[in-house]
Write a structure and sequence with these properties.
It is found in: Cell membrane. It comes from Sphaerochaeta halotolerans. It is a multi-pass membrane protein. With about 350 residues, this protein is mostly helical. It is built from 13 helices and four strands. It has a single domain, classed as ABC transporter involved in vitamin B12 uptake, BtuC (Orthogonal Bundle). The strands form two sheets. The chain has a two-stranded antiparallel sheet with strand order 1-4. The chain is globular, with a radius of gyration of 22 Å. About 0% of the residues have low confidence.
Length: about 350
């Protein structure tokens, strides 16, 4: 009996040691991935600064950060969707409809600016929740389908509510986040830092954040372990809509106008930023802080191409190549990932 017990203890110890080694290896792999993403950004900055002396000026770097803020905010929602092995193609259209409603509330109806902002954020959140309902309650087979439909609906409504006319003349309080600074730092950059800080805590320190990772990793296992998968997906897509509307608020502040074609193709940059940041289309893998690095890589690339006077058509080609490379890197990561036993 004692011999059997000793053998069982040794086996349990061996299993625990193996699991510990696997955990350490996964942590090392993730750390190398994060360092690789940061190194890519540094190398890109060095190359562009060599090609264009104007790149490393304070004015230009501030401009890059300010221009990246809208994409940084809207990419948070895309990150959450991709983390659950889904996708949100409607975020650009949600942004457009949210800011058009903001214009109606704040300018046409002369509402209190803060109330108008809250209502616009609510519009974005509700449309995102609608995406979640399509996916969970109506059981549409994939969020690609549901969010594609919502993308067309929201864009059509954005064009219809003001007969495709832009709205301008927003109150200074509404423009504050988009075009004001707190000391030397743009308010939009501070907002991005706050949002990513909160989301980092949310994803790493709350049960809901852990459930989002779990659902992306294995839906059926999450369901069997007692996680309310439908609730998690509703939260994810509602948050995606909220962040799209919040990004729209920054955009309105920058240009002092709401126009129905705003946000066109923003989902493309967001998806690219999330994948460049190390998230996987297969779900369950990714870090929120790496997403902002992905956003900066795209922003720096766009800025560098502008400084080098590259034709806008070829800029589009370059971004397309980056997206393909990002997806290809995701495929390589999945193939090289250790098989879980």
């Amino acid at each position: 009996m004692n011999r059997k017990k000793n053998e069982e203890v040794r086996k349990d110890g061996a299993v625990e040691a193996t699991q510990s080694e696997e955990t350490k290896e996964k942590k090392k792999t993730k750390k190398r991935g994060s360092l690789g993403i940061m190194l890519s950004l540094i190398v890109l900055c060095v190359i562009i600064s060599i090609l264009s002396p104007r790149f490393l000026t304070v004015a230009n770097l501030t401009n890059v950060l300010s221009q990246a803020t809208v994409s940084a905010i809207i990419s948070v929602g895309e990150f959450l969707a991709i983390l659950t092995a889904g996708i949100d193609l409607s975020i650009g259209s949600i942004l457009a409809l949210s800011i058009m409603m903001l214009g109606i509330f704040a300018v046409n109806m002369q509402m209190n600016p803060m109330l108008a902002i809250l209502l616009a954020l609510a519009v974005g959140t509700l449309i995102g929740l609608f995406n979640g309902i399509l996916l969970t309650k109506l059981r549409l087979p994939h969020p690609f389908i549901s969010t594609m439909g919502t993308k067309m609906i929201a864009r059509g409504l954005a064009l219809a509510v003001t007969a495709a006319q832009p709205i301008s003349g927003f109150a200074p309080s509404i423009q504050f986040l988009g075009n004001r600074s707190i000391g030397p730092v743009p308010a939009s950059v501070i907002l991005v830092a706050i949002v990513y800080g909160i989301m980092f805590i949310f994803m790493t320190r709350t049960s809901t954040g852990r459930h989002i990772y779990a659902v992306g990793g294995n839906v059926e296992a999450s369901r069997l372990s007692g996680i309310n998968v439908h609730k998690v997906l509703l939260i994810v897509y509602a948050l995606s809509g909220f962040f799209a509307a919040l990004a729209g608020l920054l955009l309105v502040g920058r240009v002092n106008a709401a126009y129905p074609l705003a946000g066109t193709d923003y989902e493309t940059d967001a998806i690219a930023a999330v994948i460049i940041g190390g998230a996987s289309f297969s779900g369950g893998v990714g870090k929120i802080l790496n997403t902002v690095i992905g956003v900066l890589i795209i922003a720096v690339l766009r800025n560098g191409l502008n400084l080098l006077n590259v034709n806008s058509a070829y800029q589009t080609v370059a971004i397309g190549v980056v997206i393909i490379l990002a997806v290809y890197l995701d495929v390589i990561r999945q193939k090289s990932a250790p098989v879980q036993k």
